[in-house]
Amino acid sequence: MRKATLLLFVLALAAGAADAARTAEPYKVPRTPHGHPDLQGVWTNTSLTWLVRPPIFKGLVATPQEEAMMLEGFRRMAGDLLAEHVDPNLPAPPVVKNAPQADVLEMDLRLARIDGQPRSSLIVEPADGRPPLTPAGKAATEAWDRSKGYADPEARPNEERCLTSIGLIEGPPMLNGGFNSHYQIVQTKDHVAIYVEMNHDVRIIRLTDRSRPHPSVTPWMGDSVGWWEGDTLVVETTHLNPKGAYVGGLTGGFAYSPQAKVVERFTRKARDMFLYEFTVEDPVTFSKPWRAELPFRPAAGPIYEYACHEGNYSLPNILRGARVQEAEAASAAAKPAP
Question: In this structure, is residue 199 part of a structural domain?
Fold first, then answer.
Protein backbone atom coordinates (compact mmCIF):
# COMPACT_ATOMS: atom_id res chain seq x y z
CA MET A 1 0.00 0.00 0.00
CA ARG A 2 2.81 2.36 0.92
CA LYS A 3 4.63 1.56 -2.33
CA ALA A 4 1.45 2.30 -4.34
CA THR A 5 0.94 5.58 -2.50
CA LEU A 6 4.58 6.55 -3.08
CA LEU A 7 4.29 5.67 -6.76
CA LEU A 8 1.18 7.87 -7.14
CA PHE A 9 2.99 10.71 -5.37
CA VAL A 10 5.97 10.43 -7.71
CA LEU A 11 3.69 10.34 -10.76
CA ALA A 12 1.86 13.44 -9.52
CA LEU A 13 5.15 15.27 -9.07
CA ALA A 14 6.22 14.28 -12.57
CA ALA A 15 2.92 15.45 -14.05
CA GLY A 16 3.24 18.77 -12.22
CA ALA A 17 6.78 19.23 -13.46
CA ALA A 18 5.66 18.50 -17.01
CA ASP A 19 2.84 21.08 -16.73
CA ALA A 20 5.29 23.64 -15.38
CA ALA A 21 7.69 22.93 -18.22
CA ARG A 22 4.88 23.38 -20.77
CA THR A 23 3.90 26.67 -19.13
CA ALA A 24 7.48 27.89 -19.22
CA GLU A 25 7.90 27.04 -22.91
CA PRO A 26 8.39 30.15 -25.06
CA TYR A 27 5.58 31.18 -27.38
CA LYS A 28 5.77 29.37 -30.69
CA VAL A 29 4.81 31.59 -33.60
CA PRO A 30 2.20 29.98 -35.90
CA ARG A 31 3.16 29.80 -39.54
CA THR A 32 1.44 29.93 -42.90
CA PRO A 33 1.83 27.10 -45.43
CA HIS A 34 4.64 29.20 -46.95
CA GLY A 35 6.57 29.20 -43.66
CA HIS A 36 6.01 32.87 -42.77
CA PRO A 37 4.77 33.92 -39.32
CA ASP A 38 0.97 33.89 -39.41
CA LEU A 39 -0.51 37.34 -38.73
CA GLN A 40 -3.88 36.52 -40.27
CA GLY A 41 -7.15 37.31 -38.57
CA VAL A 42 -9.25 40.27 -37.45
CA TRP A 43 -7.46 42.61 -35.06
CA THR A 44 -8.05 45.90 -33.24
CA ASN A 45 -5.74 48.41 -31.58
CA THR A 46 -8.14 50.57 -29.52
CA SER A 47 -7.05 51.96 -26.16
CA LEU A 48 -6.97 55.21 -24.22
CA THR A 49 -3.27 55.72 -24.89
CA TRP A 50 -2.59 58.81 -26.97
CA LEU A 51 0.04 59.15 -29.65
CA VAL A 52 1.59 62.12 -27.81
CA ARG A 53 2.14 61.81 -24.04
CA PRO A 54 -0.25 63.99 -22.01
CA PRO A 55 1.36 66.15 -19.32
CA ILE A 56 -0.23 64.18 -16.45
CA PHE A 57 2.26 61.35 -17.08
CA LYS A 58 5.84 61.41 -15.82
CA GLY A 59 7.23 58.57 -17.95
CA LEU A 60 6.50 55.96 -20.61
CA VAL A 61 5.07 53.43 -18.12
CA ALA A 62 2.03 54.84 -16.33
CA THR A 63 1.45 54.38 -12.61
CA PRO A 64 -1.93 53.04 -11.39
CA GLN A 65 -2.76 56.54 -10.14
CA GLU A 66 -1.97 58.12 -13.52
CA GLU A 67 -4.07 55.53 -15.36
CA ALA A 68 -6.98 56.17 -12.98
CA MET A 69 -6.69 59.91 -13.68
CA MET A 70 -6.71 59.24 -17.44
CA LEU A 71 -9.81 57.05 -17.21
CA GLU A 72 -11.61 59.57 -15.01
CA GLY A 73 -10.78 62.33 -17.49
CA PHE A 74 -12.19 60.25 -20.34
CA ARG A 75 -15.39 59.59 -18.40
CA ARG A 76 -15.84 63.26 -17.64
CA MET A 77 -15.24 64.22 -21.27
CA ALA A 78 -17.78 61.63 -22.46
CA GLY A 79 -20.26 62.76 -19.81
CA ASP A 80 -19.90 66.41 -20.84
CA LEU A 81 -20.48 65.54 -24.48
CA LEU A 82 -23.61 63.56 -23.63
CA ALA A 83 -24.90 66.26 -21.30
CA GLU A 84 -24.92 68.75 -24.18
CA HIS A 85 -27.67 66.72 -25.87
CA VAL A 86 -29.67 65.43 -22.91
CA ASP A 87 -32.59 67.22 -21.22
CA PRO A 88 -31.95 66.84 -17.47
CA ASN A 89 -35.70 67.07 -16.82
CA LEU A 90 -36.52 63.92 -18.78
CA PRO A 91 -37.27 60.72 -16.82
CA ALA A 92 -34.88 57.78 -16.90
CA PRO A 93 -35.14 55.71 -20.09
CA PRO A 94 -36.78 52.28 -19.95
CA VAL A 95 -34.60 49.23 -19.37
CA VAL A 96 -33.89 47.48 -22.67
CA LYS A 97 -32.69 43.89 -22.88
CA ASN A 98 -30.31 42.78 -25.59
CA ALA A 99 -29.63 46.34 -26.72
CA PRO A 100 -27.18 46.59 -29.63
CA GLN A 101 -23.64 47.39 -28.67
CA ALA A 102 -22.71 51.04 -29.09
CA ASP A 103 -19.64 52.01 -31.11
CA VAL A 104 -17.87 53.32 -28.02
CA LEU A 105 -17.93 49.82 -26.52
CA GLU A 106 -15.55 48.69 -29.23
CA MET A 107 -12.85 50.52 -27.29
CA ASP A 108 -10.60 49.06 -24.65
CA LEU A 109 -11.14 51.68 -21.94
CA ARG A 110 -7.65 51.21 -20.55
CA LEU A 111 -4.18 52.31 -21.47
CA ALA A 112 -2.44 50.13 -24.06
CA ARG A 113 -0.33 47.41 -22.44
CA ILE A 114 2.97 46.05 -23.70
CA ASP A 115 4.72 43.38 -21.64
CA GLY A 116 2.00 43.95 -19.04
CA GLN A 117 2.96 47.60 -18.57
CA PRO A 118 0.42 50.41 -19.21
CA ARG A 119 1.81 52.89 -21.70
CA SER A 120 1.33 56.64 -21.34
CA SER A 121 1.98 57.34 -25.04
CA LEU A 122 2.45 55.46 -28.27
CA ILE A 123 5.65 57.42 -28.94
CA VAL A 124 8.61 55.77 -27.23
CA GLU A 125 11.42 57.71 -28.92
CA PRO A 126 12.10 60.56 -28.13
CA ALA A 127 11.85 59.74 -24.45
CA ASP A 128 9.50 62.67 -23.74
CA GLY A 129 6.80 61.07 -25.91
CA ARG A 130 6.50 64.00 -28.31
CA PRO A 131 7.31 64.15 -32.04
CA PRO A 132 10.35 66.35 -32.75
CA LEU A 133 8.58 68.86 -35.00
CA THR A 134 10.52 71.39 -37.01
CA PRO A 135 9.04 74.92 -37.28
CA ALA A 136 7.72 73.96 -40.72
CA GLY A 137 6.24 70.73 -39.34
CA LYS A 138 4.53 72.54 -36.48
CA ALA A 139 3.03 75.10 -38.85
CA ALA A 140 1.81 72.37 -41.23
CA THR A 141 0.23 70.36 -38.41
CA GLU A 142 -1.53 73.43 -36.99
CA ALA A 143 -2.82 74.28 -40.47
CA TRP A 144 -4.32 70.81 -40.85
CA ASP A 145 -5.92 71.09 -37.42
CA ARG A 146 -7.86 74.18 -38.46
CA SER A 147 -11.15 74.10 -40.38
CA LYS A 148 -10.75 73.83 -44.14
CA GLY A 149 -13.58 76.20 -45.04
CA TYR A 150 -16.72 75.70 -47.10
CA ALA A 151 -16.11 77.76 -50.23
CA ASP A 152 -15.13 74.97 -52.64
CA PRO A 153 -15.00 71.16 -52.73
CA GLU A 154 -11.19 71.05 -52.60
CA ALA A 155 -11.28 72.74 -49.19
CA ARG A 156 -13.32 70.05 -47.50
CA PRO A 157 -11.35 67.33 -45.62
CA ASN A 158 -10.82 63.93 -47.22
CA GLU A 159 -12.64 61.97 -44.50
CA GLU A 160 -15.78 64.03 -45.09
CA ARG A 161 -15.66 63.04 -48.76
CA CYS A 162 -15.23 59.36 -47.80
CA LEU A 163 -11.86 59.30 -49.54
CA THR A 164 -9.97 58.33 -46.38
CA SER A 165 -10.85 57.33 -42.83
CA ILE A 166 -11.21 59.83 -40.00
CA GLY A 167 -7.61 60.72 -39.19
CA LEU A 168 -6.26 58.39 -41.90
CA ILE A 169 -5.99 55.57 -39.35
CA GLU A 170 -5.72 53.08 -42.21
CA GLY A 171 -2.12 54.20 -42.23
CA PRO A 172 0.63 54.09 -42.45
CA PRO A 173 0.99 54.34 -39.54
CA MET A 174 -2.13 52.56 -38.27
CA LEU A 175 -3.04 54.59 -35.18
CA ASN A 176 -5.74 53.72 -32.66
CA GLY A 177 -9.06 55.43 -33.31
CA GLY A 178 -12.18 55.64 -31.18
CA PHE A 179 -14.39 53.40 -33.31
CA ASN A 180 -14.40 51.17 -36.40
CA SER A 181 -10.75 50.35 -35.71
CA HIS A 182 -10.74 46.78 -37.01
CA TYR A 183 -8.14 45.41 -39.39
CA GLN A 184 -8.21 42.07 -41.19
CA ILE A 185 -4.87 40.67 -42.33
CA VAL A 186 -4.63 38.14 -45.18
CA GLN A 187 -1.32 36.66 -46.34
CA THR A 188 -0.06 34.91 -49.44
CA LYS A 189 3.47 33.94 -50.35
CA ASP A 190 4.12 37.23 -52.16
CA HIS A 191 1.71 39.73 -50.59
CA VAL A 192 0.15 40.86 -47.33
CA ALA A 193 -3.25 42.55 -47.52
CA ILE A 194 -4.70 44.62 -44.67
CA TYR A 195 -8.41 45.30 -44.97
CA VAL A 196 -9.29 48.37 -42.91
CA GLU A 197 -12.82 48.71 -41.51
CA MET A 198 -12.79 52.51 -41.82
CA ASN A 199 -12.98 53.49 -44.78
CA HIS A 200 -13.16 49.90 -46.14
CA ASP A 201 -9.77 50.31 -47.82
CA VAL A 202 -7.23 47.57 -48.48
CA ARG A 203 -3.50 48.06 -48.12
CA ILE A 204 -1.55 45.81 -50.50
CA ILE A 205 2.03 45.15 -49.39
CA ARG A 206 4.20 43.38 -51.91
CA LEU A 207 6.92 41.05 -50.62
CA THR A 208 8.63 40.54 -53.98
CA ASP A 209 10.05 42.90 -56.63
CA ARG A 210 11.37 45.23 -53.94
CA SER A 211 13.63 46.85 -56.53
CA ARG A 212 10.68 47.66 -58.79
CA PRO A 213 10.35 51.43 -59.32
CA HIS A 214 7.67 53.20 -57.33
CA PRO A 215 4.54 54.17 -59.30
CA SER A 216 4.26 57.67 -60.75
CA VAL A 217 1.00 58.15 -58.82
CA THR A 218 0.84 58.73 -55.07
CA PRO A 219 -1.91 56.60 -53.47
CA TRP A 220 -3.60 57.73 -50.25
CA MET A 221 -1.71 55.04 -48.35
CA GLY A 222 1.49 55.34 -50.35
CA ASP A 223 3.48 52.54 -51.95
CA SER A 224 4.43 49.75 -49.53
CA VAL A 225 7.05 47.04 -49.88
CA GLY A 226 7.74 44.43 -47.22
CA TRP A 227 10.18 41.71 -46.22
CA TRP A 228 10.75 39.32 -43.34
CA GLU A 229 13.50 39.84 -40.78
CA GLY A 230 13.33 36.63 -38.78
CA ASP A 231 9.77 36.48 -37.41
CA THR A 232 9.11 40.20 -37.97
CA LEU A 233 7.35 41.63 -41.02
CA VAL A 234 9.03 44.92 -41.99
CA VAL A 235 7.13 47.30 -44.28
CA GLU A 236 8.57 50.45 -45.84
CA THR A 237 6.14 53.00 -47.30
CA THR A 238 6.96 56.07 -49.39
CA HIS A 239 5.14 58.14 -52.04
CA LEU A 240 2.34 59.08 -49.64
CA ASN A 241 -0.26 61.34 -51.22
CA PRO A 242 0.42 64.99 -50.23
CA LYS A 243 -3.32 65.76 -50.31
CA GLY A 244 -3.80 63.24 -47.53
CA ALA A 245 -0.83 64.54 -45.62
CA TYR A 246 -2.20 64.21 -42.11
CA VAL A 247 -2.32 61.19 -39.80
CA GLY A 248 -4.26 61.47 -36.58
CA GLY A 249 -7.58 60.50 -35.05
CA LEU A 250 -8.59 60.24 -31.41
CA THR A 251 -5.00 60.31 -30.21
CA GLY A 252 -3.64 63.43 -31.88
CA GLY A 253 -1.64 63.51 -35.07
CA PHE A 254 0.91 65.07 -37.36
CA ALA A 255 1.26 66.35 -40.90
CA TYR A 256 3.92 65.06 -43.26
CA SER A 257 5.67 66.19 -46.43
CA PRO A 258 6.18 64.35 -49.75
CA GLN A 259 9.59 63.26 -48.40
CA ALA A 260 8.03 61.20 -45.60
CA LYS A 261 8.92 57.54 -45.12
CA VAL A 262 7.22 55.19 -42.65
CA VAL A 263 8.81 51.88 -41.61
CA GLU A 264 6.47 49.46 -39.80
CA ARG A 265 7.30 46.25 -37.92
CA PHE A 266 4.76 43.50 -37.18
CA THR A 267 5.86 40.89 -34.62
CA ARG A 268 3.57 38.14 -33.30
CA LYS A 269 4.22 38.01 -29.53
CA ALA A 270 1.40 35.80 -28.24
CA ARG A 271 -1.76 34.01 -29.29
CA ASP A 272 -3.74 37.15 -28.49
CA MET A 273 -1.31 39.93 -29.45
CA PHE A 274 1.08 41.20 -32.07
CA LEU A 275 3.35 44.17 -31.50
CA TYR A 276 3.10 46.97 -34.05
CA GLU A 277 6.02 49.39 -34.24
CA PHE A 278 6.61 52.23 -36.65
CA THR A 279 9.30 54.81 -37.35
CA VAL A 280 8.59 58.07 -39.15
CA GLU A 281 11.31 59.85 -41.12
CA ASP A 282 10.64 63.22 -42.71
CA PRO A 283 13.41 65.87 -42.79
CA VAL A 284 10.91 68.63 -43.59
CA THR A 285 8.50 67.92 -40.74
CA PHE A 286 10.75 66.39 -38.05
CA SER A 287 14.24 67.21 -36.84
CA LYS A 288 15.01 63.50 -36.47
CA PRO A 289 13.23 60.13 -36.91
CA TRP A 290 10.85 59.11 -34.14
CA ARG A 291 9.38 55.76 -33.14
CA ALA A 292 6.13 54.50 -31.63
CA GLU A 293 4.62 51.13 -30.71
CA LEU A 294 1.21 49.75 -29.79
CA PRO A 295 -0.37 46.33 -29.35
CA PHE A 296 -2.96 44.75 -31.63
CA ARG A 297 -5.33 42.19 -30.10
CA PRO A 298 -7.88 39.82 -31.66
CA ALA A 299 -11.32 41.27 -32.44
CA ALA A 300 -14.60 39.50 -33.03
CA GLY A 301 -15.25 39.26 -36.76
CA PRO A 302 -16.39 39.55 -39.40
CA ILE A 303 -15.85 43.17 -40.36
CA TYR A 304 -19.12 44.73 -41.46
CA GLU A 305 -19.63 47.43 -44.06
CA TYR A 306 -18.47 50.90 -43.14
CA ALA A 307 -21.38 52.83 -44.64
CA CYS A 308 -19.84 56.18 -45.54
CA HIS A 309 -21.91 58.28 -47.94
CA GLU A 310 -19.70 58.05 -50.98
CA GLY A 311 -18.81 61.40 -52.55
CA ASN A 312 -20.60 63.30 -49.72
CA TYR A 313 -24.17 63.75 -50.92
CA SER A 314 -24.42 66.83 -48.69
CA LEU A 315 -21.68 68.67 -50.56
CA PRO A 316 -24.10 70.60 -52.85
CA ASN A 317 -25.84 72.02 -49.78
CA ILE A 318 -22.48 72.87 -48.16
CA LEU A 319 -21.41 74.80 -51.27
CA ARG A 320 -24.86 76.38 -51.66
CA GLY A 321 -24.58 77.73 -48.13
CA ALA A 322 -21.21 79.28 -48.98
CA ARG A 323 -22.72 80.99 -52.04
CA VAL A 324 -25.52 82.41 -49.87
CA GLN A 325 -22.96 83.78 -47.41
CA GLU A 326 -20.99 85.34 -50.27
CA ALA A 327 -24.13 86.96 -51.68
CA GLU A 328 -25.06 88.35 -48.27
CA ALA A 329 -21.54 89.75 -47.80
CA ALA A 330 -21.62 91.34 -51.27
CA SER A 331 -25.05 92.85 -50.60
CA ALA A 332 -23.89 94.29 -47.29
CA ALA A 333 -20.79 95.76 -48.91
CA ALA A 334 -22.88 97.40 -51.68
CA LYS A 335 -25.15 99.26 -49.23
CA PRO A 336 -24.18 102.88 -48.74
CA ALA A 337 -22.78 103.77 -45.38
CA PRO A 338 -25.31 105.47 -43.09
Answer: yes
